[in-house]
Amino acid sequence: MVCGKCQLNTSNAKEVAKCSLCSVEFHATCCRIRTVAKLLKMSAKALTTWRCDECDVDGASSTNSDDPIIMDLLKNIKQEMLDSRKSNSASFASLEKTMTSVRDSLEEVKLKLSTVEKDNLTLKEDCGLLKKENQRLAENVSQLKTEIDELQQRSRLNNIEIRGVPVTKGEDIYAVVESIAKAIGVVFNRGGISIAHRLPAPRDRRFHPSIVVQFISRSIRGEWLIAARKNRIETTDLAPSLQRAPVFISEHLTAHNKSILGRAKAFVKFGKLAYAWSREGRIMVRKTADSPAERVSSFEDIERAAASPSPSQNTRSTQGIRCETTPAGSPE
């Protein structure tokens, strides 16, 4: 027999498909089967019911030859889709689990952050309270220091401090004080003195240790201070053999008051204040020669007192700088 399409011999039955209606044979390559391989894969039932293109006018058997292959392809595709779906489902499940974990972690972080914010707010409040408490304590400490300094100064109200007198070998401190009394013109009365002694030597060896004299009454001390202010003395007034140098007699001030007086005198030296002196342990200043006396107890007080216009040149006298005592006649 010959092929119904190419009219060539169809002797090889394995390469030929026979229409179940018209019994015409076709090479596999001449019909819609297309290849011998597809023909060989067709089942016996598919071969016996196969129709050629002309007989298969309603398309009822259009898939007769292709159905097994297409079905296999569809089956494979379906399987791949199922496998892919399973894989995707597993991936989505894993992703969803991860997202859930991330969401839980974020919620935990938010909770912790909220806790930290609350703690931070509490710490800020505590810090504010501590600052206020620290400020209060600092003010209390400052007040206590002031009170202690005032008590120390009050305990020195009967004292004078003598500076600039050299130490001599085997000296009798009361004899030295007697020579000072004679030099400034006051009557020396040993019974009017409670005690007299040298202070420890200062670190700067250029300065001699001061002498502190404590009198039995403030009135005696006042006499000495008035006389000392009227009669400036030098070491040679005490002993001609001593090297000439000024001797200063002043109130016995605490270390704090000494620093305040020293700063105030520096302001006098530079013309920012007219006068600076001590009176009964209090540090006093005048802004100008005509301004009222003002007490200062801190560096800030001095700055404030000097904030007014500078005094004229004639107020920058050595009297303003060297005023050590508070007798009548001091610039107050």
List keywords for this structure.
3-stranded antiparallel beta sheet, Znf_RING/FYVE/PHD, alpha+beta, Herpes Virus-1, 5-stranded antiparallel beta sheet, 332 residues, 4 domains, single chain, Alpha-Beta Plaits, disordered C terminus, 10 strands, 45% helix
Estimate the helix proportion, in percent.
Answer: 40-55%
Number of helices: 8
Low-confidence stretches: 60-65, 313-330
Radius of gyration: 60 Å
The biggest beta sheet is recorded as:
5 strands, antiparallel
Beta-strand percentage?
A: 5-15%
Describe the structure.
InterPro entries: FP_C, Transposase_22, Znf_FYVE_PHD, Znf_PHD, Znf_RING/FYVE/PHD. The longest helix has 88 residues, at 67-154. With 332 residues, this protein is of the alpha+beta class. β8 and β9 form a beta hairpin. It folds into 4 domains: 1-54, 2-Layer Sandwich (Herpes Virus-1); 80-156; 158-252, L1 transposable element, RRM domain (Alpha-Beta Plaits); 255-309, no CATH class. The chain has helices at 36-41, 44-48, 67-154, 173-184, 218-230, 255-269, 299-305, 318-322, and strands at residues 16-18, 25-27, 159-163, 193-198, 211-215, 233-234, 246-251, 275-279, 282-286, 294-296. The strands form 3 sheets. It has a 5-stranded antiparallel sheet with strand order 4-5-3-7-6, covered by helices on one side. Helices cover 45% and strands 13% of the residues.
